[in-house]
Automatic annotation (TrEMBL):
<protein>
    <recommendedName>
        <fullName>EF-hand domain-containing protein</fullName>
    </recommendedName>
</protein>
<dbReference type="InterPro" id="IPR002048">
    <property type="entry name" value="EF_hand_dom"/>
</dbReference>
<feature type="domain" description="EF-hand">
    <location>
        <begin position="40"/>
        <end position="75"/>
    </location>
</feature>
<dbReference type="InterPro" id="IPR011992">
    <property type="entry name" value="EF-hand-dom_pair"/>
</dbReference>
<dbReference type="InterPro" id="IPR018247">
    <property type="entry name" value="EF_Hand_1_Ca_BS"/>
</dbReference>
<keyword id="KW-0106">Calcium</keyword>
<dbReference type="GO" id="GO:0005509">
    <property type="term" value="F:calcium ion binding"/>
</dbReference>
<feature type="region of interest" description="Disordered">
    <location>
        <begin position="97"/>
        <end position="129"/>
    </location>
</feature>
<dbReference type="Pfam" id="PF13202">
    <property type="entry name" value="EF-hand_5"/>
</dbReference>
Length: 129
């Protein structure tokens, strides 16, 4: 039985990565090809730089750099305040008192677990989930 060999460049992830980075396909990597191989990182860094460059002049001054982080900290504090208020005002749906805020069903007699139609009353926590 003959076994057909599979070329290593079809299976080896390192060879595939080399081929991906070698943009001009000359079998060699230049430093530029190597740097440009991580395009998502470069795009991230570009967006970050332009976020610092608030006046759009292509240069980030010390004041722009500091202002960026002040703005970021202000945004973070505003978000924290919102979520802290949300968490403080939120009621736990797993506590029985949570259901006290819902209107009572007029078809259910006080203390009864059955609807006037005859079927069992569903667990309210199961209805919400």
């Amino acid at each position: 039985m003959d076994i057909t060999p599979i070329p290593i460049d079809k299976t080896d992830p390192n060879v595939k990565e080399f081929q991906r980075i070698d943009s001009n396909k000359d079998g060699q990597l230049t430093f530029t090809e190597f740097l440009l191989s991580d395009r998502p990182f470069l795009e991230h860094q570009s967006r970050r730089f332009h976020g610092f460059d608030m006046n759009g002049d292509g240069v980030v001054s010390k004041k722009e750099f500091e202002d960026y982080f002040k703005k970021l900290e202000k945004h973070k504090r505003r978000s924290d305040m919102f979520f802290n208020k949300f968490n403080r005002d939120r009621r736990d749906p797993f506590q029985a008192s949570f259901f006290d805020s819902f209107p009572k069903n007029p078809q259910v007699e006080e203390g009864s677990r059955e609807l006037s139609g005859g079927g069992p009353l569903h667990n309210p926590s199961m209805v919400l989930l």
